[in-house]
Structure prediction request, 67 residues.
Amino acid sequence: MIRKLKRMLRSRTMMFSALLFLLGAISDNSSYIQDLLDPKVYSVSMFVIGIIIAYLRLTTTQPLEDK
Prediction:
């Protein structure tokens, strides 16, 4: 189990996913951050995140087990 987690940490896609999780948890629990983001900026950021995830997926060359 520990080996699998270490392999996951070497994946750019998994690191990006963890970053999104943390940002989502922080923004959900902080009204200050929610006030900073305009709804239009939020929708553009979702578009950009989708592009980043697609790019990371396309550049993936090996499964996590091989890392």
Remarks:
- Residues 2-66 form one domain.
- The mean pLDDT is 80.
